[in-house]
């Protein structure tokens, strides 16, 4: 079994890219994504800026 370890920065970048890809694919504005996901608009904006991702606190 092979394991692949990633840094928190790599994980944040991957997640941010995936969230952006999905919300663009559905043509949702951040406000729509916020309402549908239950995540505050401020958190989504921070998450979009990987260097200040809320996931870095884990």
List the helices and strands and how they pair.
Blueprint: H1 8-25, H2 30-37, H3 41-48
Report a brief summary of the structure.
By secondary structure, this protein is an all-alpha fold. It is built from 3 helices and no strands. 59% of the residues lie in helices and 0% in strands.
How would you describe what is shown here?
- The structure is a single chain.
- The mean pLDDT is 79.
- The radius of gyration is 13 Å and the shape is elongated.
- The protein starts with 7 loop residues before the first helix and ends in a 10-residue tail after the last helix.
- It is built from three helices and no strands.
- It has helices at residues 8-25, 30-37, 41-48.
- The protein is mostly helical.
- It has a domain at 28-58.
- Tell me about the largest β-sheet: none
- Decide which structural class fits the backbone: mainly alpha
How confident overall, as mean pLDDT?
A: 79
Strand content bin: under 5%
- The number of E-state strands comes to 0
Relevant terms:
58 residues; mainly alpha; 3 helices; elongated
